[in-house]
């Protein structure tokens, strides 16, 4: 964590005001306690956050949620098919692969919904194209923006909400690329901080140098737009 | 080339050749220049300057990579997993040159120790290899060669993680560096038959009757033509043609018994094609030159490329018969390469950022503090470990809010190396191994020492294990660390004071401007520049450099850190 020994209370407040909340984190309180979060999302207590988890790599969907009542499955998979006796039943038609007890509990508690058959016609066998198509939700279209990016653009076309898109990873996913929003991307909230000596902060802050780093909603400076 | 092609790759006007243009050239063909080098290049004609960077000068005095000496022939055919290793030992009495103990406790322990030792050793040695290559990039008198090798490394992207063998990745990198500026035609064949690529894309699993399409697909999608230029059927036929290609440790071997010699139809042609035929047909395709030329353009010039320019670059590469040197010569001399859309618009990759920062500081040795491997990991580019066979992303992919902070943090560690806080990541096996180490040092018996944290000792009573994995991991780490040649942990040795005095600065403002001039291709905005000047004068307690001369270094390093945090510093 950044230690800022030379700052007075007033300096501290002024820094947060000027948008340097990310620099004055104290303690390693994790996401919920981090001033970064409360500042950047402007989230009131009780507001909902949609969390999307993207798993990379291949998954065999038909052996994850198994359509055990469908003979076509076993005809197509004489060796791979998982039989009714060897899975966790959901209903007359489907069942979970037998180690998915956690999901089974969520399902029984009414906290889970399953969407079957997500895909698109004539799927590309290029790993990289397929990933891109699933992240844009618009296969073979040349769409440059992600499905979450377009969602944010529709809900908030003028960008009134600070940082509706947060992407926790070491690189930005195509899924959050949007027309009217710059996603907030970082890998580790405890490391999402600028390590900087007090003298430099004071120097910048004292001379209105906030433009030198980032805008207070973490959008890059205009120089990047020119370079794009 | 038709008329419009000739115009688009028209040469830069000699009247526009300047120190700015020379500095731009140096940023792109290598890792940036210092004022003396820039001036020398600017004094030449554009052709002389480009020829100079294309040829470079000799690096005979730079040291070759010195191995720690881990590998020996008993590690050939290294088992794919620990269970495979112990099963092999049980079956045959030995594995990896180590015998099963005829008596005593844990008869398979020495074999298991050997397995883990190699895993750790090859990882640590690969880090040393990347440190060595970075050091070469820093000091080389032929930076274009290393820059082009870096391009090929991202293009024919192969990660040591899957290879589990530093010898193979070293051989591949040597191949890429030696052939970097020669012929794409030759490089494509050489890389495809090199053991690193053969292992990485599963050549040995591609056999007659059971083709594995991994290489067949990626060689077209990523290395030559780009997605959409061929059908799934073409991929299948290519895979059949590549059957029989395999490796014997570091050497290519063709296994004719595994080769499908039947007739194939590929990209509209028919014949009993083998792998060499497939590569030849791919190279004859127009799209190949266009795809590769465009990718080279994006690496050196910028991410924007019009369809006309892509077509013209493809024609140029084809006219050069895939020879890289004449292709680059035309590219670096072109008007468009020096145009406003290109100059100062390239976002430096992490490797470019690290090496160019150190080159501009005039360093003679790659610093070991901060640890370059760790910096690469934090910034999103680990040399010799590309995330996938598609290599790394380009341009804006390098910048996220988090990554922008981390680039600034790297700058701070470069300006103010934290010797007190530094711990050597090559000597860090992780907390689980440390716990086992503490326990065994305290005299605990192996079973007890390696229990899960919090497990009751009685849970292991009576167990007669033939080997203990956690203990093997500990033994493997210790052995690997003992034999690893140490990476020098000297921080950067430089003096910003000397640089600004050399530039004739006499005031805080002149010092700030001098540093900005040296480090930036895109100028700071006035607000930031003024803030830094005020901050420096404040830190010096004076506006005069002479008054602050005996202690001015610290303030200058604060300014440099500030400059390097700026978005402008990420641009070349």
Rg on CA atoms of chain B, Å = 27 Å
Write down the oligomeric state: heterodimer
Number of helical segments with 4 or more residues of chain B: 28
Helix-strand makeup class of chain A: mainly alpha
Structural class of chain B: mainly alpha
Uncertain runs of chain B are 1-7
Strand order of the largest sheet of chain B: 1-2
| Low-confidence regions of chain A | 1-7, 19-42, 205-228
Summarize the structure in words.
Chain A has 228 residues and is mainly alpha-helical. Helices cover 30% and strands 6% of the residues of chain A. Chain A has helices at residues 9-17, 30-33, 35-41, 71-76, 101-108, 127-136, 147-155, 198-206, 222-227; strands spanning 65-66, 87-89, 95-97, 166-168, 184-186. The model of chain A is unreliable at 1-7, 19-42 and 205-228 (pLDDT under 50). Chain B is mostly helical and 572 residues long. Helices cover 54% and strands 3% of the residues of chain B. Chain B contains 28 helices and six strands. The longest helix of chain B has 31 residues, at 109-139. Chain B is flat, with a radius of gyration of 27 Å. At the A-B interface, strand 5, helix 8 and helix 9 of A face helix 20, helix 26 and helix 28 of B.
Write the layout of secondary structure elements.
The complex is a heterodimer of chains A (228) and B (572).
Chain A: H1 9-17, H2 30-33, H3 35-41, E1 65-66, H4 71-76, E2 87-89, E3 95-97, H5 101-108, H6 127-136, H7 147-155, E4 166-168, E5 184-186, H8 198-206, H9 222-227
Parallel strand pairs in A: 4-5
Antiparallel strand pairs in A: 1-3, 2-3
Chain B: H1 3-8, H2 19-29, H3 35-42, H4 46-55, H5 82-92, E1 94-95, E2 98-99, H6 109-139, H7 143-155, H8 160-163, H9 166-178, H10 184-192, H11 195-200, H12 214-224, H13 232-242, E3 245-248, E4 251-254, E5 264-266, E6 269-271, H14 275-284, H15 286-300, H16 307-319, H17 324-333, H18 350-360, H19 372-379, H20 401-415, H21 431-441, H22 446-449, H23 469-483, H24 496-502, H25 508-519, H26 526-540, H27 545-548, H28 552-565
Antiparallel strand pairs in B: 1-2, 3-4, 5-6
């Amino acid at each position: 964590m950044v230690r800022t020994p030379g700052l007075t209370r007033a300096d501290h407040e002024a820094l947060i005001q000027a948008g340097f909340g990310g620099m004055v984190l104290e303690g390693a309180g994790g996401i919920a306690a981090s001033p970064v979060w409360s500042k950047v999302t402007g989230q009131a207590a009780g507001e909902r956050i949609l969390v999307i988890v993207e798993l990379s790599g291949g998954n065999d969907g038909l052996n994850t949620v198994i359509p055990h009542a469908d003979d076509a499955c076993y005809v197509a998979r004489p060796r791979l098919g998982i039989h009714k006796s060897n899975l966790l039943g959901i209903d007359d038609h489907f069942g979970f692969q037998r180690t998915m007890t956690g999901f089974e509990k969520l399902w029984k508690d009414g906290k889970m919904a399953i969407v079957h058959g997500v895909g698109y016609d004539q799927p590309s066998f290029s790993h990289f194209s397929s990933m891109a198509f699933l992240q844009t939700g618009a296969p073979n279209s040349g769409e440059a923006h992600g499905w979450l990016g377009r969602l944010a653009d529709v809900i908030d076309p003028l960008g009134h909400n600070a940082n509706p898109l947060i992407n926790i990873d070491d690189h930005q996913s195509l899924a959050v690329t949007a027309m009217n929003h710059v996603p907030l991307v970082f890998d580790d909230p405890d490391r999402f901080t600028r390590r900087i000596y007090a003298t430099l902060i004071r120097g910048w802050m004292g001379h209105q140098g906030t433009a030198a780093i980032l805008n207070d909603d973490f959008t890059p400076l205009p120089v990047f737009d020119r370079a794009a | 080339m038709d008329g419009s092609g000739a115009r688009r790759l028209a040469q830069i006007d000699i009247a526009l050749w300047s120190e700015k243009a020379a500095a731009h050239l140096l940023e792109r063909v290598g890792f940036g220049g210092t004022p003396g080098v820039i001036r020398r290049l600017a004094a030449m004609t554009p052709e002389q300057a480009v020829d100079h960077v294309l040829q470079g000068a000799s690096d005979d005095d730079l040291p070759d990579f010195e191995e720690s000496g881990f590998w020996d022939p008993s590690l050939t055919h290294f088992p794919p997993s620990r269970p495979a290793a112990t099963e092999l030992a049980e079956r045959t009495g030995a594995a990896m040159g180590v015998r099963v103990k005829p008596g005593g406790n844990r008869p398979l322990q020495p074999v298991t120790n050997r397995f883990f030792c190699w895993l750790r050793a090859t990882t640590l040695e690969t880090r040393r290899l990347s440190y060595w290559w970075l050091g070469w990039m820093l000091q080389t008198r032929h930076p274009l060669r290393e820059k082009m090798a870096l391009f090929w490394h991202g293009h024919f992207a192969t990660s040591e993680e899957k290879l589990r063998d530093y010898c193979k990745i070293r051989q591949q990198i040597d191949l890429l560096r030696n052939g970097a500026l020669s012929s794409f035609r030759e490089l494509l064949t050489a890389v495809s038959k090199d053991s690193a690529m053969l292992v990485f894309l599963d050549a040995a699993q591609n056999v007659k009757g059971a083709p594995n399409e991994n290489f067949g697909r990626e060689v077209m999608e990523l290395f030559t033509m780009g997605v959409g230029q061929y059908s799934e059927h073409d991929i299948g036929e290519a895979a059949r043609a590549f059957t029989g290609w395999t490796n014997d440790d570091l050497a290519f071997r063709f296994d004719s018994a595994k080769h499908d010699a039947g007739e194939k139809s590929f990209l509209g042609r028919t014949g009993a094609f083998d792998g060499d035929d497939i590569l030849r047909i791919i190279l004859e395709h127009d799209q190949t030159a266009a795809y590769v030329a465009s990718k080279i353009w994006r690496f050196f010039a910028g991410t924007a490329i019009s369809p006309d320019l892509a077509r013209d670059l493809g024609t140029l590469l084809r006219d050069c018969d895939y020879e890289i040197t004449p292709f680059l010569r035309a590219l670096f001399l072109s008007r468009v390469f020096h145009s406003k859309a290109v100059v100062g618009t390239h976002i430096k990759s992490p490797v470019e950022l690290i090496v160019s920062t150190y080159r501009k500081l005039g360093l003679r040795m790659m610093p070991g503090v901060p640890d370059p491997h760790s910096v690469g990991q934090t910034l999103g580019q680990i040399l010799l470990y590309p995330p996938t066979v598609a290599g790394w992303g380009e341009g804006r992919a390098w910048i996220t809010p988090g990554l922008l902070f981390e680039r600034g943090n790297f700058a701070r560690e470069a300006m103010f190396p934290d010797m007190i806080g530094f711990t050597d990541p090559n000597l860090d096996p992780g907390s689980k191994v440390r716990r086992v180490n503490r326990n065994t040092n305290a005299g605990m018996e192996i079973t007890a020492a390696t229990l899960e944290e919090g497990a009751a000792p009685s849970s292991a009573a009576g167990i007669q294990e033939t080997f203990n994995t956690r203990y093997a991991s500990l033994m493997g780490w210790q052995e690997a660390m003992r034999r690893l040649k140490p990476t020098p942990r000297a921080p950067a040795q430089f003096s910003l004071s000397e640089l600004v005095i050399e530039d004739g600065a006499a005031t805080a403002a002149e010092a700030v401007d001098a540093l900005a001039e040296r480090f930036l291709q895109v100028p700071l905005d006035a607000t930031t520049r003024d803030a830094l000047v005020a901050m420096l004068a404040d830190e010096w307690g004076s506006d005069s450099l002479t008054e602050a001369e005996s202690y001015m270094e610290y303030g200058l390093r604060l300014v440099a850190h500030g400059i390097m945090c700026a978005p402008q510093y990420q641009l070349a």
